[in-house]
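Reply to dn_fold:

You asked what the input looked like. This is it:
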Amino acid sequence: MSASNSVTDILQAGARTLLHHSESPRLDAELLLGKVLGLSRAALVAHDNDPVTGDCERSYAGLIEQRMRGAPVAYLTGIREFWSLPLTVTPDVLVPRPETEILVELALRLLPEREDCSILDLGTGSGAVALAIASERPRAQITAVDISPPALGVATRNATSLGLSRIQWRLGSWFDAVPGERFDMIVANPPYVAAHDPALAMLSAEPAIALCPGATGLEALRTIAASAPLHLHECGWLLLEHGHDQAADVTDLLGRHGFEAVCSHRDFSGRPRVTLGTLHTQH
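and this is what came back:
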């Protein structure tokens, strides 16, 4: 590439390079060039014939190379949008997925809009779920837990940048961080990828602790389902995100631990993604 290349030229070249390394090569190319030039995707269109300097080309080429090696675009740009909220993400946290917005959507359906309520978000990572709920339910008191200090650092920075202050951030493993406390709702997007799943190889840039809980992929889900009754108020709800092939197992788990009205919901791709249930009596 030469310094005379335009925004359009460089975008086309970047998309071609990523053709076999990404499910969305054009989008990735636009996001990475936008990062280098400090422009939004819409602004790139407006400046499509502008020349790009050699320094910017070299920076862009470096990002394209990292993307080819499997680095998520969100780590390269430092930003991922979730529930229309711009979130800072780093390699210390899992990149928020669009399918996790189903977890937020279902939680909001069950939460009162104008009443106080308490919510526990387990394995909060970047804070995506807690922050999305907080943005829609300003009267909710949310407690968000993660076992990783760096992840909580990312989450608290996101809360500060978004001006969402009604969240308590706790360090610890699942319910160890909230001894003796009960909530109206517990939500969790725990690690659920089985150790032998070939998908792990494609996710190697992301923190393993947030992806794989053990051999079956059900370990964290079992732990949460077993202990949740001790941390829910009467008529409280538990919502669990899980793998698309784990709905039957999670449904069975919730039933065995006393949950009623257990139901699985599908993500945007039509695959079972979130299973929920309610607890009519305290344990």
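The two ends are 66 Å apart (CA to CA).
Hope that clears it up.
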